[in-house]
Amino acid sequence: MAGRFTGSFTQQEALPAEAVEAAVAVLQSGRLHRYNLAPGERGEVALLEAEYRDWQGSDYCLAVTSGGQAIQIALRASGVAEGDAVLTNAFTLAPVPGAIAAVGGRPVLVETDITLRPDLNDLADKITGSGAQYLLLSHMRGHLCDMERLMQICDAAGVTVIEDCAHTMGAKWNGIRSGNFGRVACFSTQTYKHINSGEGGFVTTRDAELAARATILSGSYMLYARHGAGPEQGAFAGARYDMPNCSARMDALRAAILRPQLARLEGNIRRWNALYRIVESGLAGHARIALIDRPGAESYVGSSIQFRLPGLAAGQCRAVLAAAGARGVELKWFGAGEPVGFTSSHESWHFMAAQALPGTDRIMATLFDMRLPLTFSRADCALIAGLIREAVSEVAP
Question: What ranges make up the beta strands (E) of 23-157?
């Protein structure tokens, strides 16, 4: 054994000093609710919304309590109603189809291809077969598909695209940020995402009426004029009467600690990608390990890495998990029969109708995943790659 990794795969970096200072200032003010403002005060949440709107390059931004709430609000604001078919990736995390079910929609899963992106041929077939008018596109684990082709398919069929960008904050396809292709986009600021408030999220859009509906849904009461990146007051004429209040407002404390992190995000993207390339290079060339293709049009954010072990049986995959774990390397395997941690497959999502997805099942049977927190050094990443190679070779020489 070449050694053992002794670091943590769940330890995030400490928040910047500016974030701590901003948090203390909010706590000392006692004004944590986004609408509890002193006279003339704009407020941390409104400031964050404006800053994120400008960084994303959108027209409107709404800050909410979680990425999951961002998705539910985006679905409702887009018009998804009880019983509507909503397409989404078969390879995603449970909260994505869960959000569809939570708003009364009917998830229709699209096959995943060998690059972990939705199979666009199957997408076209599923649009025709299901009659779905909505696609909740999950950029799962940071892999962007051919967005021009996807939008052509959806636009031709009149399908509204809602982008789940929880894993692609800052990623681009042909120079365009993820989230700026569909009608509306959802982002997460959960601890393991690209900026960290424990829980939190954003909804962004260029559609003023959708932004107004989302704002009322978030629980603005009639205080929407206090938002930092909302539409003009006229856009709320119908929404203020039609949309229920879901009480999903971001609070001032979370916004205060996110603003300094957003200012550092571009630099952190470069750091993540440097770590990713070290692990990718360290795994490359192993006869058993298949890396995931990164198209030239994609500018990714490498906060996690995935690889497949084609040809290995389920028992061997479990043995790889154990062999890596013995070396201090925490891998996740998407082929397990039962949900483990944040990882699960469509077969365990009993809140929706079972669906046959042989292509996805075949890929996920040998698919592994690993976080790359910024607390890792470059030397850590080189060591980890070597330990993974050892673990795989031990199980499948």
Answer: 60-64, 85-89, 106-110, 134-138
User: Residue 91: which residues within 8 A CB-CB, separation 6 or more?
Assistant: 112, 116, 138, 140, 334, 360, 363, 364
What's domain 265-395's architecture? Alpha-Beta Complex (3.90)
Average of pLDDT values for 292-297? 97
Residues 6+ apart with CB under 8 A from 326: 391
Question: In the chain, how long is the greatest CA-to-CA distance?
Answer: 69
C-beta of residue 240 within 8 angstroms of C-beta of residue 222? yes
pLDDT tens per residue, range 337-371 = 888 877 888 999 999 999 999 999 999 999 999 99
Secondary structure class of 301 (helix, strand, coil):
coil
Grouping H, G, I as helix, E, B as strand and the rest as coil, residue 191 is coil
B/e letters for 340-355, b = 16+ CB within 10 Å, e = fewer, are: eeebbbbeebeebeeb
Residue 66 CA to residue 140 CA, distance in Å, equals 17
How many Å is the Cα radius of gyration of the chain? Answer: 21
CATH architecture of 17-259: 3-Layer(aba) Sandwich (3.40)
Domain extents for the chain? 17-259, 265-395
